[in-house]
Each structure stands twice: as C-alpha cells, then as structure tokens.
C-alpha cells in the first residue's frame, strides 16, 4: 500500500500547527476558538473549512495508447486517495485529438506521447512544464531517476520538463532457439560482433529455390522499425545531432558504414523485396519470431511480458544485445510512455496526484515487473526485487546505461522522419547512403533553423 502525502498536502496543514508551536515556545497558551464567541455564519464557515479536503479532488482524465490495463491501478489509487479517481481512456489518433481538444478548451488532463513528441508540445504551449510539481513533491525525487529517461523530456535551453515518464523500455535481440539448434548453433552463445553476426545470419537464412522462406535477420521488423539503423550509428560513435542540439551530424562516415552494413545483410537474404514479401501483410510483428519466419528479431524487452507469454508461451528463445562492430560502443534503442499535461488541463493537481502514486517506488516496481518495462529509478532497476535472478531482467539493468533515442527537441517529429525515412530506399538500392545522408542533413538543418527562428533562439 502506498500512503503518499505530497508536499502540497503537507504544507496545507502546517500553518495552524505553526501558530500553536510558536505560542507554546513563548510560554503562552494557544488561544482557544470557542464556538460561543463566533457568530453562526462564522461557525458554519469554520466547520466547512475543517471538513474540506486538504489535497486535490475529482477525476484525472488520461488518453492513452491501449498498451496497458490501467483498471487495477486506478482502483488502488482510488482506495488510497478518497475523493480522487483516475480515468484512462484508449484513444486512436490521440495526439491530433489532443491538440484539437486543447485548442477548443476541452482537453483531458494528460495524454500518452512518445519522447520525441514531448518537448515540441511544450514549447508550442500545448502542454505545460511540470518542474514546479516535481519540486513540491514529497514522493518523487528526480535525482533517483535514470538521466536518459528525463533528458528526452526536457527542453535543453530552458530546462523545462514536459512530462511524467512511466514505462521506459529497451530493445533486445530475440533468437529463435529451435532454429539455432537445427543449424548447429547454440542459443546460449549468440554472436557478439558484427562479423560473427554476418555468419549466423547466413547460416540461419533459408531459401526454397529462389524464394526466401526464413530470414536470418530482417532488421526492421521489430518495434524499432527503420529507426534501428541509428543503433548501429551510435555503436560506431556517431549521432544525428550534437548533444546541445546546435549541429546536425547525421552525414558522417559512421552513418555510411552503418547503412552499408545493413544493406549487405539484406542482400545475403535475397534483398529488400524478398524480405518484404516474406513479411507479408496483416500479421502481428512478433508472430514472425514465434513462427520462425525471422530467426534474429530486435524488439523491446517488453514483448516477453506483453505478447510472448500469452501468445507463444512455449517459444524457445535466446536473447542478447545487438552485436557490436569491432571496437564499437555499447548502445541500445529505448522508447518510453510519457504523460504530458495539457496547458489548460481541467484538473492538473489530480493528475499529478496520480503521477505521484504511479511513479512511487513500490507501484512503479510492480508495474515494471508485470510488463517487463524498465523501472524509472536506477537503484530499482538493478535491485534483486526487480531482477529476481532472471537473466532477462538482469540484461535490462546491464543495458540501461547505454540507452539512446531519437532527437527530442523542437521539431523532433519531423526530424525523425528525415532521420529514418530514407532507409527503405537505401536498402532497396534506389539511392546511395551518402546521397540520402546529405539530403537528411539538409532537411534537418533547415527544419531546426525554422524552429529556432519561431522560438527566438
């Protein structure tokens, strides 16, 4: 049970206590408030004040993506906080609806967004910064949180933080164990280098004549999509932007090398079109691993708890980080679910009360364990209460310091398109990597210049 008391609630009850303590310290008795000295209307006002709740009340309305079942958590929250309720509503096209609702003056209190969308919503006055809420909280200490979880929600020039992160994730290479055994490989000893990975992909790829029937590694089928190429860029020491967002750095030798390597592994599997044909349409992405159409499959750790346990409980799979290039760096691609508050939220205090409950150490731990998500706190992620001697979770804790994500500043939504939209054409041979990167650099540079002018930066 979580009996949280926020600083706002605590401060509300300190004034009268302070008067009594001060009077006692001076050797005086605190004056009594006698009913007979008060007029009837004063007595009614005094009684109403005494009965008034000390903290926020009412409903917090949240629009989300439908990934999680919030009902049990909402019930516990209501039990712990009489007078408060949390209403989570799944909304398709929730972001556009959110913008429209804010403009119309009828938004929910908060909406579920991706990291790359959060700051842009804030600097355009669609969502509000939460810095003051965090400072006043007696429950949440951001110094305990993973830095990478917070940095993607923060506008670097102003320090304004525009969201409450509650479901960070990382990605892992799932390996179809039975296929590994079939071709003489050991799923307990997966490849660790690009060169060894090349060999494993060739060994596990299967053709029927000229038709691809099993892909050794279709790199973009998992939850990272074509954004996976950035993982290789980070491993090689490159990035899309400089850390302070002042320079676009995507057009680099490291980027060319990453894209060329990915194109090569497409070619040994029959090429872009052959892999796309094997993928088909309308199938759940995780079914490709479960049904052995893909042998190496890069997706979130959360797929285990959110999909495989229910839909493929007998699947024999190994797991490993994405192999590194020789001399390369550790890197991982991590997303998040973030609650960003409407600038004109009808009940932001109630919404933050929910955040304090949901991100409390105990609740966040239980939620992360249920869905194989990453706890927001560093210490919790490596704790035995979270890892429970589970090698899968132990790998999460080991990989979290290497977490990266897309550029998340103003213009992040369009910048993401520039940074990954060209990948299919490069893989299909319609454009070279240097040509694509030059165009991406130009597009992102012009985009950010426009945003800086708009924001006066």
Notes on the protein architecture:
The strands form four sheets. This protein has a five-stranded mixed beta sheet with strand order 2-1-3-11-4. A three-stranded antiparallel beta sheet has the order 8-5-9. Strands 6-7 form a two-stranded antiparallel sheet. Helix 4 (71-80) links the parallel strand 1 (58-64) and strand 2 (84-90). Helices cover 46% and strands 11% of the residues. The protein is globular and about 95 Å long. The protein has helices at 7-12, 15-25, 40-51, 71-80, 94-104, 115-123, 131-136, 147-151, 177-182, 194-204, 228-235, 253-267, 272-279, 287-290, 302-311, 348-358, 361-371, 378-381, 384-387, 391-399, 412-420, 423-428, 433-455, and strands spanning 58-64, 84-90, 110-113, 164-165, 171-176, 206-208, 211-214, 296-300, 317-320, 332-333, 338-341, 403-404. The model is unreliable at 1-36 and 48-52 (pLDDT under 50). It contains 23 helices and twelve strands. The chain has 457 residues and is an alpha/beta fold. It folds into three domains: 7-51, no CATH class; 58-169 and 335-404, Periplasmic binding protein-like II (D-Maltodextrin-Binding Protein, domain 2, 3-Layer(aba) Sandwich), CATH 3.40.190.10; 173-333 and 421-455, Periplasmic binding protein-like II (D-Maltodextrin-Binding Protein, domain 2, 3-Layer(aba) Sandwich).
